[in-house]
Amino acid sequence: MVTKTEPATASVQDTARVAVQIVLPTLAGGVIKRRPLALAAAQKLQLDRDGAA
To answer: What angle separates helix 24-33 from helix 36-45, to the nearest 10 degrees?
Structure first.
């Protein structure tokens, strides 16, 4: 006997968490890499490390 299950649906909170933790840093990284002074500051502050605010 095969049972069908519905696919999981992400909540608004889950979607926002993904956006904040994955999408926004990726987009910001692209912008920062195009600006040498901002990239130097980001490296000095280690903004690519987990837990950076």
So the answer is: 130
**Domains held by the chain: number:** 1
Tens of pLDDT, residue by residue over 2-52, are: 888 888 898 999 999 888 888 888 887 777 677 788 778 878 888 777 654
Residue 38 lies in a domain: yes
Q: CB neighbours of 18 closer than 8 A, spacing ≥ 6? A: 10
Residue numbers of the domain that contains 41: 13-45
